[in-house]
Amino acid sequence: MFLPERPLRLGTRGSPLALAQARMTARALCAAHGWPEEAVAIVTVQTSGDRIQDRALADIGGKALWTKELDRALVEGAIDFAVHSMKDVETLRPDAFRIAAMLPRADVRDRLVGADDFAALPANPIVGTSSPRRAAQVKRLRPDATITLFRGNVATRLAKLAAGEVHATLLAAAGLDRLDQQDVGATIAIDVMLPAPSQGAVGIETLGDNDAMVAALCAINDGDTFDAVMAERGVLKGLGGTCHSPIAALARVEGEFLHLIAEIISPDGQETVREETRLARGDDAAQAVGHALLGRASPALRSLFEA
Ligand SMILES: NCc1[nH]cc(CCC(=O)O)c1CC(=O)O
């Protein structure tokens, strides 16, 4: 067995959610290998995404804002592996990195916080979110809603809601659960609000040429989660999607196959293009689903996916 001579350095963002996910990963890795707790040291790295709080992600450089400082730490050897919410990991990653493992996926659904359901919101509700997907899905359900930009970590968003800045907000159930906020919000069914690609999945990345680290991480990989999330990322790849783009996708393992649902939605919620299909596990067919969605979209919706 691979036994580290010194503590392995796990790199993570410093938000409470990121730290909770880092601790889950460290615990799983030590348990899988029979290592003492001290075998993994958590190293916090501040990212641009954490620093810049007042603008939508899409306007300031996209998802690389969450990964680039951790990437640099990996390349410079300051950390041995990095833990990410897969939802925040860009679709196209530099070749040097390898997503070596994913933890078993948590609840993939969103929760509405501030009302029991969308129908219970007052007329002309103000809903805080900076996710183009959630904004479009809210407009589809409630055309009278006004969307207001809402960023910051989970606690910040809940504080803004409590201060009355908005009638409601949406948060991933996975994040709330990991922060011990199981009682916050009303869970929304998948057929009402299809989640973001990769929602609820924690991924672990290392340098592709670090064979010992890759092997050690493989021991905690959940293969079903990995295949499902990779298929959802395949849809993003096929769409050329970024975090500007209202895209939802969910794959679930069914025996030898993946059941995949994906949709793109116009920002006003008036146009939805949806595909539902069965795919072989671990192939590139998910990218073709992305192409199929674009092929059926109106020119206006399609233009959101052109660079
Ligand atoms: N974009 C921020 C982000 N990235 C991952 C999560 C939640 C955890 C997850 O989806 O795995 C969140 C917060 C949220 O969407 O509520």
From TrEMBL:
Domain of life of the organism in this record? Bacteria
The family database entries (NCBIfam families) matched by this protein are listed as: hemC
User: Which family does the record claim for this protein?
Assistant: Belongs to the HMBS family.
Q: Which GO terms describe its molecular function?
A: hydroxymethylbilane synthase activity
Write out the entry's keywords from A to Z.
Porphyrin biosynthesis, Transferase
Q: What quaternary structure, including any partners, is listed in this protein's UniProt entry?
A: Monomer.
What are its GO cellular component terms? cytoplasm
A Pfam family of this chain: Porphobil_deamC
Functional summary from the UniProt entry: Tetrapolymerization of the monopyrrole PBG into the hydroxymethylbilane pre-uroporphyrinogen in several discrete steps.
Which segments cross the bilayer? none
The coding gene here is: hemC
Entry keyword annotation includes Transmembrane helix: no
Every copy of the Porphobilinogen deaminase C-terminal domain together lies at 228-290
Question: Per the record, what are the reactions this protein catalyses?
Answer: 4 porphobilinogen + H2O = hydroxymethylbilane + 4 NH4(+)
Coiled-coil regions listed: none
Q: Where is the Porphobilinogen deaminase N-terminal domain?
A: 8-213
Task: List the InterPro entries.
Answer: HemC, Porphobilin_deaminase_N, Porphobilinogen_deaminase_C, Porphobilinogen_deaminase_C_sf
Q: In which pathway does it act?
A: Porphyrin-containing compound metabolism; protoporphyrin-IX biosynthesis; coproporphyrinogen-III from 5-aminolevulinate: step 2/4
Class of enzymatic activity (EC top level): transferase
Q: What is this protein called?
A: Hydroxymethylbilane synthase
Q: Which GO terms describe its biological process?
A: protoporphyrinogen IX biosynthetic process
Cofactor(s) annotated in UniProt:
dipyrromethane
EC code(s) of this entry: 2.5.1.61
